[in-house]
Sequence to fold (146 residues):
Amino acid sequence: MPTFGRLTAAILFAQLCWYVSLLAVPLFSEGKTPAMWTEINTVIGLWMGWVVAGKRAGDGYNAAISYGLTTLVAIIFWSLFSHSVIEMIDRSLNKRYDGPAEAVVSIFELGAEIGQFLATPLVLGTLLIGSLVAALVTEFIGRRYS
Fold:
């Protein structure tokens, strides 16, 4: 059911993912940014904000910290997973794998590689602080208008 808490969470986490995606673009080498990097991450932030954080808006400010961190972990997981699957499909179409098992295993290897590459203090700090602020604002709006 749509509420202002869900709407607020979706918008704030989408904005956070959009901003962090733009911060991460210079970390990739020239022309190696994954396809639709910013757009996919923004949609994932919108989706996780609505589903994870927005659903729990109004549970209290202590819970807000918890669901803010939970949303952050979900965003990181789905972002790494989706970009890894896209890269695996691209490599698979170029016949770089000997079989389907190798392709599936490479999803997790690619996810770990991208995650390790992006694990900089700027990106992680922005995600952490941004998700806590977004969750607290979501809680405020969820208590007032839902």
